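Budget justification note: compute hours in this period were largely spent on complex prediction jobs such as the one shown. Inputs:
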Amino acid sequence: MISRLRYTFREMWASMSRNKTLTAATVITSTISLLLFGLTLLIQRGFDNQLKLWTGGVEMIVYVKHGATPDQITLIQGALSSQDTVVENVEYCDEACATLVANTLFAGDTDSLEQLLPKIPSFFKVTPIDKDSGDVLRSLKDTFRELPNVIDVRTPDQQVEVLSQLKGFFGVRTLIIAAGLLAASALLIWNTIRTAMFARRREIEVMKLVGATNWFIRLPFMLEGLVQGIAGAFLGGVFMLLINRDWTSGVRAFPVSSGLEGFVVTDGYPYTVWLIMVFVGAFVGAVGSGTAASKFLDV
Amino acid sequence: MIKLENVTKTYSTEVTALRDASFDVAKAEFVFLVGPSGSGKSTLLRLMNRQERPERGSVWVAGRNINEMPDSKVPHLRRNIGNIFQDYKLLTNKTVHENVAFALEVIGRPRHVIRQQVPAVLDLVGLGGKQDRFPHQLSGGEQQRVSIARAFVNRPLILLADEPTGNLDPATGEGIMRLLDRINKTGTTVVMATHDQRIVNMMRKRVIQLDRGVIVRDQARGVYE
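Corresponding output:
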């Protein structure tokens, strides 16, 4: 067992040393592919963070007819609160509160205030659970509009719809790009191993003739692919962390009013991504090299 | 030890390498396969170590029908068969010792066994003291001896030799034949393809003659005709 292990590692190292240029090219390509794969995951997380920031303040405003009685208001509140599977929070702002809000919003616009204040409606602020779903917001809006003494319901459903589409658009496309890059990486590893095996075809022929099993022949090559994949992932991870650090400090230098402050990933997620990259690199390397080795041994 | 029953091997619809070949080879027998180039000698050897499979008929080695043997068992079959080639098939980046040790290493023999068996077999083939040389530092005859040492180091039941003297001068070729004869006398079955008339006539062993894939003569203590 120990002699087999020694043999496997020695042959792997010999093969990598013999094909230094090809090994370097494979590691560089794996690094770039896995770096882009990692960055894709970070970009998605950045979008998620940004969307959370944008959708965090989504509320639905249910306007109640001016002069509604406390009983009528209690009835509406009960109806809103009963939707507890889709509604997170209901907050009532009575006519005095609404007057304060109006005074703030229309400060200096005396004409609007004069028209609004005599008949100012009280309102409920309703926070939905699923803030990203335009359909849920529209459905709630239709339900609440039917309630007695409700004069209007305003929701930001269109904006949420746009944000939701944006997230889907980037999510799907970046995943496709990442999958394409990973496939390219696997193919390059496949090609490297095949080239390495072709260079050692005489040795492999002798090995087969003296009775080496296919697994025995295949293992050093698979290990070589595995090491290349992991090395690429490790280096890609280092570059990803550096880029993320640079990006984060760059975005933080933007003014707060830019609205992009959420587009950073500052928690431990990049390290999780690094770990994912190492696993993906190892998987791609082992599968790519294993397939190449098997194909060659079948000939 | 080896038995062929009505074996036919074709490489394409137009090329029949072997046609309805049948013969037995007993344990510790020495057999020459003779015939002109393209007569099917190498194909016969390739069928015996499962590098090829026949279209019809069966090939038995050490009591097992190797055509029906699953692929996973073939490496174990080959551990009992040594192969010697005209072009030696040595690994040029390995020393004499490493070339021979390689055959044991790839079948998982432990280091202490390798340390013990390799010098012994190198002494047997007359290469003691040359274990650190690379193939390009050896003569053709010496390279063929390394090839024989590699084939024999695992003490196989059978040695298959494909034109082992083809690249050697007559005197060196005779030395190789003496070595193969010594190995044969240890109980190893030797099947050797050749068209070296002088060697066949000198050895006076069993001769199976092939012509365009057909066995035309099977003669004990035969000569080259």
